[in-house]
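Prompt: May I have another protein with tokenized structure?
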Amino acid sequence: MTAEVHSAQPVSDTATPVDPEQIEAARARAAALPVDQQLSMTEAARGHLERTFAGDDSALGLRLGIKKSGCSGFAYVMDAAREIHDDDLWFDCDGVPIITDEASFPAIRGSTLDYVVEGLTRMLHVNNPNVEDSCGCGESFTVRDED
């Protein structure tokens, strides 16, 4: 799969006003997709992100993307979304949006974000039905070619 990638945006001390029309357009693009391709999150992930973004008025939701990385090809990039781009998709997940760009979307379509606790480790984990293989360390992955 060839994909342009979107990395997390840098954190800015000043909040940039977000155009409500851009948000609605991003929501409409996401809502037009088949339900089985839309992004979702578990209750555990939603609770974690609500706590993480509490008091951060500039955070619109979670930005989820991919970047070329590691031995298998791609890695996930997650950060607070602070702006909306013209190619973004906005998935409403019970009050906590997941925002991604159209270039990253084919590699993550149909994914569910989860918050996993394993011993002392706590992390956001992407349950991605498109992953064909991942490296031994679990940091990177490859996706199936689109039919």
In short: The two ends are 11 Å apart (CA to CA). The longest helix spans residues 20-31.
